[in-house]
Design goal:
By secondary structure, this protein is mainly α. The chain has one domain (about 1-125). It contains five helices and no strands. The protein is elongated and about 50 Å long. The chain starts with a helix and ends in a 5-residue tail after the last helix.
Amino acid sequence: MKRISLSVIAVFLSWSVMDYIIHGVILGSSYAATAPLWRPMSEMKMGVMYVAVLIGAIAFVVIFSHFVSKKGVATGLKYGIWFGIGTGVPMGYGTYSVMPIPYVMALTWCLGSIVEAAIGGLIVGAFINKES
C-alpha cells in the first residue's frame, strides 16, 4: 500500500508540473488567441482540475498495480505510452474535431498526454516493480 500511495503522489505531482508547462507555458498564447472558448481565469475551477488529475493518477496507478502482471520500469514505460495514446488522441484530436481550436493545440494536447503518461509509467514502474 505504501508503494501505491507514493506512486500516486509522484504521478500526481509530475502530471501537475507537466500540465503547467504544457498549458501555462507552451500553449499560453494559443489559449489567449482562443479566449472566447474558455472560462476567464477568475472563473476557472482549479480545485476541480486538481481533483480530476488526482483521480486520474489514482486510476493510472491502481490499474498498473492490480492488472499488470509483469512489473518493472520497462513495462511501466510501455503501459504509460499506450495509456497516453489511448487518452491523448481522443483528447487532442477528438476535441479538434468538434471545437475551433488551432491544430497546434490539438497536437500538443495529444503529444503532451503521451509524454505525461510515459513519465507516469516510468514512475509507477519504478515504485511498483517485481520486488514489491
